[in-house]
Amino acid sequence: MRPQDLFDDLPPPEAAHTPIAPGAVLLRAGGRDGDVALLQAVEAVIAQAPLRHMQTPGGYTMSVATTSCGALGWVSDPQGYRYATHDPLSRQPWPAMPACLLALAQRAAAQAGYAHFQPEACLINQYLPGAKLSLHQDKDEKDLSAPIVSLSLGLPAVFLFGTPRRSDRPQPLRLVHGDVVVWGGPSRLAYHGVQPLADGAHGLLGRRRINLTFRCVGRGVV
Ligand code: SIN
Ligand code: FE2
């Protein structure tokens, strides 16, 4: 397969920067550069801190498998949702955030109008066919002034992006490999989720979608 074949489903360049809500932007192919190095960095993190299906406080086992890198990692268990300095499985610090991932997140944030983005946490979510993420807000962070930066890799998915009001109907956005969504400001607490992943085969990732969300947690959280 030629490398450019991986991006055949990309829209034309004029669609590269699409506002989707106040303070929220879809950057088509925002993560396309350095593709293979990015994936190697993600796989290296997963090798150190394996993907696992966390329990929610409500007693539900997530269909998405998660891990983290950075100074803080997101943890869910029967006690609640929080950020932790150590991986509860290994009791080791989470793997460092690879420089290429941090650089991508900072560039995307800047393109979306958020300068000086310094995320301490990167949550890695793996979706196999059928896996989904229910509508939720990212609100475990103390620092709500910084945006969330979300990179999609592998199989396409339907991302649902709403507003800070749960009752508002979310808009469906089809995200493909390399797309980045940034949401902050008035959309920082927007409800969002992912519809059950359709089966397929991606040239680099096979039957998987991997999503990375970069978060500024803020001081004094752990
Ligand atoms: C998340 O909300 O943490 C992940 C969103 C996604 O997988 O696109
Ligand atoms: Fe989220």
What does this structure look like?
The chain has 222 residues and is an alpha+beta fold. 12% of the residues lie in helices and 30% in strands. It contains 2 helices and 13 strands; from the N terminus they run E-E-H-E-E-E-H-E-E-E-E-E-E-E-E. It has helices spanning 35-48, 99-111, and strands at residues 17-21, 24-27, 65-70, 73-77, 80-84, 121-127, 133-136, 148-154, 157-161, 171-175, 180-183, 192-194, 209-215. The strands form 3 sheets. Strands 1-2-11-8-13-6-3 form a 7-stranded antiparallel β-sheet, covered by helices on one side. A hairpin with a 2-residue loop joins strand 4 (73-77) and strand 5. The radius of gyration is 16 Å and the shape is globular. Mean pLDDT is 91; it is low at 1-5 and 11-15. The structure holds succinic acid (SIN) and fe (ii) ion (FE2). The site of succinic acid has 9 residues, from strand 6, strand 12 and strand 13.
If helices are DSSP runs of H or I spanning 4 or more residues, what is the number of helices?
2
Distance between the termini: 46 Å
Give the overall shape, derived from the CA principal axes: globular
* Mean of all residue-level pLDDT scores: 91
Which regions contain 5 or more consecutive residues with pLDDT less than 50? 1-5, 11-15
Strand sequence of the main sheet, in spatial order? 1-2-11-8-13-6-3
Beta-strand segment tally: 13
The sequence of SSEs as H and E is: EEHEEEHEEEEEEEE
Class by alpha and beta content: alpha+beta
Ligands present: succinic acid, fe (ii) ion
* Main sheet makeup: 7 strands, antiparallel
Beta-strand level of the residues, as a percent range? 25-35%
Please give the share of residues in helix: 10-25%
| Rounded Rg | 16 Å
